């Protein structure tokens, strides 16, 4: 089961996840892609989205996959914030994963919010000019009201700020972390992972997360192949 990233990254990672799902299905794995409440093609108001509701969505998607495919063991593959949600879903008892594959997970929510602010500002100044200023302002807590078209409610911002995978113990049989870029708190997360977790460092391939990837057939196939190989090893 594939867990999308947040906001603009979900759009940019769409083709990669589609290719990954197709490759897994050809190998005989029942695979599900889905959108969280208030995102993509799912119902709900994006302004009302919360981390808790998205974790519940992961649980419902897993149950749907079990019922429609007849499988009993589910592997979760998450990209960026989708990896964070996958880890939290297992840690909070939403489900236990056969294999948890975390691709560049967001470890510290506060650092992620700051990253979203910086990305939004850089994009707007590149498009409009260096004099651009965010007229919407910020909340008293300093967190953004949105980033690159994705609204961030006060409730969602508070939930994001509270996330710290360095203090979380996921529930799974196997775990693989694929890291292609530095992440604040990654060392603490690595030290907190259960014995046997595989940590794989790969060359940074930002093609899937580029502007060009939105309109081109750009997929980081070496990473996709690595994800598939890890799933095949744990669930042959």
Secondary structure layout plus pairing:
Blueprint: E1 2-3, H1 8-12, H2 14-26, H3 51-69, E2 75-79, H4 81-91, E3 97-103, H5 109-128, E4 146-147, E5 150-151, H6 154-162, E6 172-179, H7 186-192, E7 198-201, H8 221-234
Parallel strand pairs: 1-2, 2-3, 3-6, 6-7
Antiparallel strand pairs: 4-5
Helix pairs in contact: 2-8, 3-4, 5-6
Let me know the largest β-sheet. 5 strands, parallel
The third-level CATH topology of the largest domain is Rossmann fold
Low-confidence parts: none
The helix tally amounts to 8
The CA-CA distance between the termini, in Å, is 16 Å
Average pLDDT, all residues: 89
Strand elements, count: 7
Q: What is shown here, in short?
A:
With 236 residues, the chain is of the alpha/beta class.
Q: Explain this structure to me?
A:
The chain has eight helices and seven strands; from the N terminus they run E-H-H-H-E-H-E-H-E-E-H-E-H-E-H. By secondary structure, the protein is of the alpha/beta class. It has two domains: 2-108 and 164-234, Alpha/Beta hydrolase fold, catalytic domain (Rossmann fold); 111-162, no CATH class. Strand 4 and strand 5 form a beta hairpin.
Q: What structural keywords apply?
A:
236 residues; alpha/beta; Rossmann fold; 2 domains; 5-stranded parallel sheet; 8 helices
């Amino acid at each position: 089961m594939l867990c999308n990233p947040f906001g603009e990254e979900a759009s940019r990672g769409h083709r990669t996840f589609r290719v990954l799902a197709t490759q897994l299905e050809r190998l005989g794995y029942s695979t599900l892609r889905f959108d969280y409440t208030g995102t993509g093609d799912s119902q709900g108001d994006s302004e009302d989205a919360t981390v808790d509701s998205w974790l519940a969505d992961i649980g419902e998607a897993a149950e749907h996959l079990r019922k429609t495919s007849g499988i009993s063991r589910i592997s979760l593959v998450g990209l960026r914030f989708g990896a964070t949600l996958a880890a939290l879903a297992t840690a909070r008892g939403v489900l236990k994963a056969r294999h948890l594959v975390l691709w560049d997970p967001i470890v510290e929510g506060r650092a992620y919010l700051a990253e979203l602010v910086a990305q939004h500002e850089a994009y707007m100044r590149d498009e409009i000019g260096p004099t651009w200023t965010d007229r919407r302002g910020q909340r008293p807590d300093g967190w953004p009201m949105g980033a690159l078209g994705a609204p961030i409610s006060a409730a969602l911002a508070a939930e994001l700020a509270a996330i710290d995978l360095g203090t979380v113990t996921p529930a799974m049989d196997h775990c693989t972390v694929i890291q292609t870029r530095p992440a604040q708190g990654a060392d603490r997360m690595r030290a907190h992972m259960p014995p046997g977790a595989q940590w794989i460092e790969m060359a940074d391939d930002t093609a899937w997360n580029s502007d060009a990837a939105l309109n081109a057939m750009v997929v980081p196939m070496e990473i996709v192949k690595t994800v598939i190989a890890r799933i095949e090893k744990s669930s042959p």
